[in-house]
Write a structure and sequence with these properties.
alpha+beta; 10-stranded antiparallel sheet
Length: 253
C-alpha cells in the first residue's frame, strides 16, 4: 500500500519542480510550522546565508512559492543528491546595543543529548583591530571576537539541552579540548587523545557520544551529560532540538 502512495507523492513533487522551477534549485522538502502543522512540497535552495534567513517553499497542493521565516516555521528540511539537510528555528540575540533579537535558521548536523549546529556568519573586513562594540552589526555576526577577526565565516556550536549550555568548538585545541569535554566517556576520550579522530570528525564524535549516552541511561531516567565545560561563546538555545538559540553578548563569562 505504501508504494503507490510514495509514487503519487513523487509525481506530485516532480510536477511542482517542473511547473515552479523556472531554473531554480528546487528539491523535495518539508516544513513544520509553529502551529505544529507538517507540510510537504518543494524547497528552493539558496546560498547558506540566505537559507539562514528563511525558507523558499512551494506547497505540495500549489505552485506559488512562499517565503517563510523563523517566526512562522520551527523546522524544515530537504534531501539533495543524497544529502539530508535539517534547519531549526533559533533566536539570535545580539545584545541591547545591536537592537532586537532576530529569528534565523541554523543547520542541525547532529541531534541528541548533545546537539551540533552549523552557523554561517560574516567576518569583519581585514582593516585592523576593531573594538568589540562594532562586532554584531551584521545580520549574522561572529560568535566571538576571534571569529570576527580571524574566522572563515563558518562555525560549529555544541548545545546541551538539559543544561542549556552552548560551546563554540571552532577554536578548540583538538583533540585536547574535545577529550576534556567528553571526559565522562573514557573510551571516547582515550580514542581522542590517541588521535583516532581528526578535527573534521567532530560530528562522528558527537554521534558516538550520544549513542553511548542513550545506551547507558535506564529507561525513563535522565541522560548522562558531559561534566567538563568550556566557556560559552555562542548562542544559547532554550528548548530541546529546537527552537531557540540566544547569543550571550559577553565573549567570556
Amino acid at each position: 500500500m505504501l508504494r503507490p502512495c510514495l509514487r503519487v507523492i513523487f509525481l506530485l513533487v516532480w510536477t511542482l519542480l517542473c511547473q515552479a522551477g523556472h531554473g531554480q534549485a528546487l528539491v523535495p522538502g518539508y516544513v513544520v510550522t509553529t502551529e505544529q502543522d507538517s507540510l510537504r512540497g518543494a524547497i528552493c535552495r539558496h546560498d547558506e546565508l540566505t537559507q539562514q534567513m528563511g525558507v523558499d517553499f512551494v506547497p505540495l497542493n500549489g505552485t506559488q512559492r512562499r517565503w517563510l521565516d523563523a517566526h512562522r516555521v520551527k523546522t524544515h528540511g530537504y534531501v539533495h543528491r543524497g544529502d539530508t539537510a535539517r534547519y531549526v528555528a533559533v533566536v539570535l540575540n545580539q545584545g541591547a546595543s545591536h537592537g532586537e533579537a532576530s529569528c534565523i535558521f541554523l543547520r542541525q548536523l547532529v541531534a541528541g543529548p548533545v546537539e551540533l549546529y552549523e552557523y554561517r556568519y560574516t567576518p569583519l573586513p581585514a582593516i585592523g583591530c576593531l573594538p568589540e562594540s562594532m562586532v554584531g552589526h551584521s545580520l549574522f555576526p561572529a560568535l566571538s571576537l576571534r571569529s570576527a577577526h580571524f574566522g572563515s565565516g563558518h562555525a560549529l556550536v555544541l548545545y546541551q539541552s538539559a543544561r542549556n549550555t552552548t560551546t563554540e568548538v571552532t577554536w578548540w585545541n583538538f583533540p585536547t579540548d574535545t577529550a576534556a569535554y567528553f571526559a565522562d566517556y573514557p573510551a571516547l576520550a582515550a580514542d581522542l587523545q590517541a588521535k583516532h579522530y581528526r578535527r573534521r570528525g567532530i560530528p562522528q564524535v558527537v554521534k558516538r557520544y550520544n549513542a553511548w549516552c542513550t545506551a547507558a541511561a535506564p529507561l525513563g531516567s535522565e541522560l548522562k551529560l558531559p561534566k567538563s565545560q568550556t566557556a560559552s561563546t555562542g548562542p544559547t538555545p532554550s528548548l530541546w532540538n529546537a527552537s531557540r538559540l540566544a547569543r550571550n553578548p559577553a565573549e567570556r563569562p
